Amino acid sequence: MNLLASLFALPDPLHPAVVHFPIVLLLLAVPVAVAAVFRRPRWLAVVAAALLGLGAVGAVVAVQTGEEDSERVAETPALEAVMEEHEEWAERTQVVAIVAAVLALGAVALGRWPGIALGARVLAAAGALAAGWCVAETGHYGGILVYQHGAGVNTAPGGAAGAVVRTGVDAD
Could you tell me the pTM of the whole model? Predict the structure, then answer.
């Protein structure tokens, strides 16, 4: 593989590489969206809308890559239950982030009507808080998958990067 191809090759597995973008964007959106309720500068509402919009797009990509990569993990009954929780919270995160982004974009679009825009900013801030909660829950179950069950972790000596070897058997 030449240098140029290796620079532009997608990581394998892709999910761990992309999932951190919506996490950061949605968690940053929370204080910005809340500040946009209490502070007048229009740029706060614009930044909140941008963070929520990009975070929602990232959540959609993370859910898609997670579904693809989950097929590579051998599931045990214990792992399956945690995987199901992780997937459900990821889907909730995706929906809540999209709703919050639409509300935030609406708040920006309604800027010439201050009273209505304030109401939309309050709803967007509530949506951002809900998205932040969903991100935390999704990450909690994702952490259990990786750190307690070893899902997606290459434990084979000299194994290929991204190989899935462990099948959820705890070391205890």
Answer: 0.83
